[in-house]
Specification:
single chain; 639 residues; alpha+beta; Butyryl-Coa Dehydrogenase, subunit A, domain 1; Butyryl-CoA Dehydrogenase, subunit A, domain 2; Butyryl-CoA Dehydrogenase, subunit A, domain 3; 7-stranded mixed beta sheet; two-stranded antiparallel ribbon; 60% helix; 12% strand; globular
Length: 639
Amino acid sequence: MSDNFYTDNADLRFHVERNIDWAALFEIVEYGASAEDRPASVADAQELYEDVLKEMGKFSARKVAPVARQIDTEATDLVDGKVVESAAFAKVFKALKRMQVYGLPVPRELGGLNAPATVYLAAGEMIARADVSTMTHFGFHTGVAMSLITYALRDPRTVVEGGRLISTPYDEAIEEMVSGKEWGCMVLTEPGAGSDLAQIRTTAVEQEDGTWKLNGEKIYITSGHAKYQLVLARSEDEETAPGLKGLSLYLCDQWHKQGREKVDNVRIGKVEHKIGHKGSPTCSLIYEDSVGELIGKRGEGFHLMLVMMNFARLAVGFEGLGIMEAAYRMARDYAAERVTMGKTIDRHEMVADFLEDMELSVKAGRSLMYRASLVTELYQRWEQVLQHDPPSDPDERTRLERKVRKLKRESRNLTPLCKYVGSEEAVRLARLAMQILGGAGYTEEWEAEKLLRDALVLPIYEGTSQIQSLMAFKDQMMLALKNPQKFLTKVARANLNKVTSKEPLERGMARLYTYKYSALQTILVRIMGKKVRKARNVSAMEWPDLLLHQWDPKEDFAPGLLHAERLARILCDVECARSLVEDARRHPERTDIALRYMHRADLRCRQELLVIEEHGDALLAALSKRNKADAADHLKSVA
């Protein structure tokens, strides 16, 4: 086994040492910093970041990977109301505390290392390669601290001077998480309220002293034994603020100190026994008049939760990337030594095809995720500058606003795709690794079975793969409907370039774009076709209102809901290919990787498009008939 998960990974080193735009990140990360505090130059900063990643690569390989099986076997449990972690797991986190790396992206003014979040995510990739449950819990130190910082920047009590964050209302919590003394968790899911957060029933009632009391049950809470809990609860009356409008966000301490004793503010109901991620505790939490502090304003909970989830979903993508890397390496190394029929199995055509597919998937996923992490961090940090220290020159402010809007659009486009790629490809590659290892992969002697068990939750938590698909579909649909002329121009340009371009990268991308646009066109035509048929029954004066506003979500969007995940898979291939092509433009030696990936992506996208074009009419007709019958039965029962 390798002794350093950074130095042994040429593709990761390519991105860190040659491809990531550290100059752009350095400019904003050190915005407003004094010369004595910050590194002297971009080169010095990059050297510092690389040194951190070398140490994290060494730690992951030497301290985490060797005990991953022990962490998995010992798992977690609940004893006398307290979570008991694996001894090996606890030892790893004591070592991480000594390394002082929990505050990698936290501002130095708040006790952090002031590195870009991209460095933290790169470290997370390597930890996940060693043991994904360790990476998950690692993220609930840094991730929740960064969420509190983001919320603090919206709070008038926060002090910002010269573009630097000086103090926040949450300094104590942030300091404890950065130091490794405590950690946080995100508390959303309830029985009956998973992806549909509008169904949340945990209540929050304001008290005379300005605090709130929460009551309800939350389930499947990762690292739910955390001291600092970000809780989504219903603060408003259902009649005046139904659904998502009635939700607010709260900071609750799991326990308070009374003298030297810790007294529970939130009770841990149980710890789940899972098939994977066994080192990371997943808890049920009971709120019984639990005291909480409102974050932001009443009714802003869903919006604030999205801010928190955006970064969490990106982090899950990197978790998946770590599993993908581990699965590919295991399969490659095993196949290079296993001999059948007179040759190692990596020389057998079918296995060679599997291995190339795995290699390209890892490289494409990594390229997509580092691109997404860059634009996400740049937009979030420059947006903070606009809010707290905007340029005094109106023209410069306008340019910055335009830049933030562009970065934000790209981040919104890429984030669900990163979550989808990392999750789904982690499962697929772990499954392929098990197949290549054969019977050995099905035993506990090898890590293939653990990788697959650990991967299986990624398409489920922090927003299922299907939720990511629906988000991506909605955004693509709205862009097309908002400016049909621009959409049709893109369609025409892609169709022209795929036949006229003599440059292989441009021609390959144009072909992929035609699949994307054709798939979206097919879905939109079916959606609009239903509207046009309805328009025949109303006067022409009513058409604009019908086509732009009178939508029935249960019926009109049905073709899109049916094919959203197929469209998402096309979008993932398109954006992975685009990332690899952009890499190749900057570094021509990467051209072969881009071309080989695009060839495989072309075949996949063509197949997805065919299914979108040819499948679904009978199923949708049957569902529509059932829905109408159910509605009729409901009316009868009411009558």
